[in-house]
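Replication initiator protein RepSA
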Amino acid sequence: MTDAATMAGLDPATLADVLRLAGSPGFDRIQDQIRRTGGCTDPIRLTGSTVTRDATTGQVLHSYSTDTEPGGVLRVACGNRRASRCPACAWTYAGDTYHLIRAGLVGDPAKGTPETIRDHPRVFATLTAPSFGPVHNRPGNRPCRCGTRHAEDAPELGTPLDPDAYDYAGAVLWNNHASELWRYFTIYLRREIAKRAGLTQKAAREQSRVSFGKVAEYQKRGAVHFHAVIRFDGPAGPDDPPPAWATLDLLTDAIHAAAARVEVDVPPSGDQPARTLRWGTQLDVRPIRAFGDGEDITEQAVASYVAKYATKAAETTGTVDRRIGNKEALVLLDVPEHPARLIAACLDLHPLYPDRKLRDWAHMLGFRGHFSTKSRRYSTTLGELRQARADYRAAQQRAALGLPDPDDEEATTLTLAHWAYAGHGHTPGESWLAANIRRDIQHNRDTAREELPALLDLEGAAA
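Structure:
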């Protein structure tokens, strides 16, 4: 347990609960449960039991019940992807996203993508929102339009130079329709590819496939933009080499042309005019290489970048990570002026566009799409990665208990389980304990990461 000096800064209620936990007979088991969740901030509490029997003889091979656990509950990780809600589960989600994106870049036969995928043309594309008014920024070595050279962490970055002239309604409506802009982009991309290949769309589909994995990120101004890995495959997917005409240059040109074609019309309503939403002019498309090569970016960098933003959302702009029902809450929550105006715009526009559910997504500044998505054949899925992890842990548990593998043809075991939801969260003392366990786990990870290059150097020297 952490020393008394660290505990001295706790508030009386938390300190009292920590001391209660430390003196309880089940303290070691509580620590073990929290450690198994990785220090989850808001674990799910379950009650129930499992019984494993020999299906032939009826003999009980193993049984477990939460009746024997401290408090009569089992804690399992919440699984929330948001780093602002649960850093522990967000770390796991980011790791899964990293492996999903990486598998589609370098190949991983165990995850359904061959290593020959590295030879397929692929790019890292960033599609942004248009301007809704000038904002404070850092334009290279030049000062901002306001005349100031802002620091990298200046709080005014991304905020409007003139808030009263900024198009807040246009900004949140653009966020709200961003997923449709992406959908139309993927449709037009396939059409532009066929056009440049001199083929019909049907013939292009029969000869090639476009696969992608993307993540959404908020800019400081509160506008969503998308980072995407876009790859050429053969008609059967990653196992199939693309045709000779499916080149990197053709893919790059088609992306630019498709992005320029996309338009989503928003009808007028109330005091709001009709709008035609488009992508911004800042479109970046860069080749992905196995290794660094001048302006090109590497597979490792792309996978790490996408994973980093898979756990972040609008709270990076100063808003909150839960729904806001009215404008009065903005004052109580101390939301900064710019995101507060974006949220207020969502609430004001909701009656005008009720089908867009702007009130429900006001805390997301209007955005209502998935933060990370992929095409069907890009690589593995998050579900498959989670299942592989669960199967691995189950195999470890069976080995520790001496139970047979259920996939073994000679195994005749039958497991009956019953679980019920019993709440979520920690007591104040458990929250403090989870935070310390999470910190220790992170420290161990950081240490291992720092030591890895040295170990590789030693192995190379020994060879």
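The chain has a mean pLDDT of 88.
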